[in-house]
Specification:
Number of strands of chain B: 0
Helix content of chain B: over 70%
Domain NADH:quinone oxidoreductase/Mrp antiporter transmembrane (chain A): 125-421
GO cellular component, one term (chain A): plasma membrane
Structural class of chain A: mainly alpha
Largest sheet of chain B: none
Number of strands of chain A: 2
Radius of gyration of chain A: 21 Å
InterPro entries (chain A): CPA3_Na-H_Antiporter_D (IPR050586), ND/Mrp_TM (IPR001750)
Order of helices and strands of chain B: HHHHHHHHHHHH
Largest sheet of chain A: 2 strands, antiparallel
Shape of chain B: globular
Oligomer: heterodimer
Structural class of chain B: mainly alpha
Number of helices of chain A: 22
Transmembrane segments (chain A): 28-50, 80-100, 107-125, 131-149, 161-182, 194-218, 230-256, 268-288, 297-316, 331-353, 374-397, 409-427, 448-470
Organism (chain A): Nitrincola tapanii
Largest interface: A-B, 63 and 56 residues
Chain lengths: 486, 305
Amino acid sequence: MSSLALLPWLLILPLAAACLTGLLPLRATQISSLLVILSQALASLLLLLWMPSDEPLFYSLGSWGAPLGIVLRLDGLAAAFLMMTSLIASLCGLYALSYLRPSQQPGFWPLFWFLWAALNGIWLAGDLFNLYVGLELLSLAAVGLVALGGEASRVKAALRYLFAALLGSLGYLLGVSLLYGAHGTLDLELLAEVFHWGPLSALALALILAGLALKTAFFPLHTWLPPAHAGALTPVSALLSALVIKASFYIALRLWVELEMPERSLEVAQLLGLLGAGALFWGGWMALQQVKLKQVVAYSTVAQLGYLLLIFPLLSSSSSEASHLASQGGWLMLLSHALAKAGMFLAAGNLILCAGRSELSALAGLSRYRPMNIFAFGLAAVSLMGLPPSGGFSAKWLMLQSALISGQWWWILVILLGSLLSAAYLFRVFSHTYLETQDSVQFGQPSLMLELCALTLAALSILLGFFAPWPLAWFALPGPFTEALG
Amino acid sequence: MIDLLLVCGLWSLALTTLLTPNAFRALVFFILLGLLLTLVWIRLDAPDIALAEAALGTGITGVLLLDTLKQQPQHALLCVHRTRIFWAVFSGLSLTLALSWALLQAPAMPIALDQTLTAQLDASGVSHPITAVLLNFRAYDTLLEIGVLLLALFAGQGLHERQHPLEQLSGAQLHNPFLRASLALWLPGMLLLATYLLWAGAHQPGGAFQAGAVLAAAFILMHLCGLALDAQVSQHLLRIGVLVGFVLFLVVASSSMLAGQTLLTYPSAWAGELILLIELALTFSIGLILFSLFTLNHQMRKESA
């Protein structure tokens, strides 16, 4: 069986699982979900191992080929993110299996599988309109997951998220239709070939980027994120912060590079970097002010997205080595943030289960009685702060090198100050757990499965620092993105 | 001249919808806006979109909104934020200006997709280009779009935790003998219309989405007259009906892989028949999904009561 024959199963199986889990009784739903989780993990691993090292793969749906039909494309980047999705979604799925009440599960699984299918579809998509459909599927599944259970505060956060996501979709769709009007194709490969720069293309790309920025929650369009990510059920928060917002960023960065924007709009790139700095400082500052644990973690996501925005100015450097380092560091940052943030949200959920309340003050005494959960939270925190030897450290190291080579020293300051600020708000959480309490306080004990899922993800974000050469080699595999970067 | 009138009508209706404090009146203006938009689509020579706008954008959406409004305690007064509306109008105007400026300088398309489409139309199994694009050339998009529709239903159903099987709905909603009597006249006509829209889709405007919306309207009218569909069929059967279109589409899509083809490749001799089969199942499912979205509201109210 070749990689190309394996590829469609990454879409068919989650979609089939979404239907099955919508129909079967609870027990059968759980068993079939476990089976499909296993098969997805296996399929994405095999795809990564069989990835040819000389050229990207193209899969023509319906055998029509571009521009008439839709073509899926698999390069190193897509393969790496398929693997990332499998890893994180599997662990969040396992976590949900024991975290969610039996009454919540029938609602959860169909949405979970649609979410996974949408993510796989977006990593693989090679067509602008197909990306729009993928984004719709992803946003609606995410909104449904936030609102799961119908608690008033969750529905409110979900509605806010829905409006932001729809506005983002509208912007993206308008931009896509303008691009189609100017070039006559929706296929990304063809578009990059015939792309010509003009007022229409500029306006189209501005609309697309603004729409995607709203969906990714880039500062200052981030206000929908904290209530949605902090208010959702724990496994949902992890999925949302780790994977969902990354999908729209992935589309934005791919378009930016493949349509050769780094040379065309130096000012816009610097502006995006400035917004990134704003995200780092504002998100960090807000995280310091929060009194609830999951709110701290959610604002930390707002802040960490700032690092991803810093890639744009770093890519615009005249030296090709600097832009290469920036793209490598950026993708690694995305990967390590995904692992660390998923681990941190799951660990935070466990801590809240232990303490029984979601306030930071309730964590007092936990470091003595439930050290394993604190340890998982701590490992994820190390990666988020960017301390060696974590994945976050390797990513920041590459970005710092890129900033040095391209002579944009001001971004070095921003990266370092951002790290300091993240250390501040994360240590603030720890300081609460080391407070001593009266011995009368009773702590709950989350099940072993919950603790293991959180610990695995957090440990992986550290291990990423040791094994960084692997993902970096996948990112550098030939493909439309690496070719456009030169 | 007509176009100018239509545009002015659109603008004034949109503004009135935004500025009316009475929710019911705002809703009526919104529905009128949708009807006018249908005319605009016809003027733009896009009858498929006009049909979809009339059936889905105005018809089903309007019914859903009206039904939601009915459940508010009183006729809710919307608070009209003057500053927000100012910003909405301002940004709408500036976007319009930017768009028209950019469109005036639109270059010629380097790729003529419409010619490729016409050349390949015979191989698609249908003769209406839009159906060919939706169900053959870009069938993957349509497959995922049906997924979006299903997802909307699942997300709505996820709003309440399912401790025990859903209660059966009570029948009569409106005790209106006139409605009942006229429904007896309309129902066969609506079913005929749905079938015609579906059948016509192969060679002229129409298709599964429009036919499904008409079917949903028939179901909703029946439901309002007390002939509740879901009181007569079990919840489980209803759920199978909701899923059957998507599942059949997925099965047909992947069965081509048995023959060593890529996903969604129809055998060329059977393409027309397969598309009709998929559309038939889709029409049925879309009708049921839209209908279920409508009854969802009632189930939730019942639970909270």
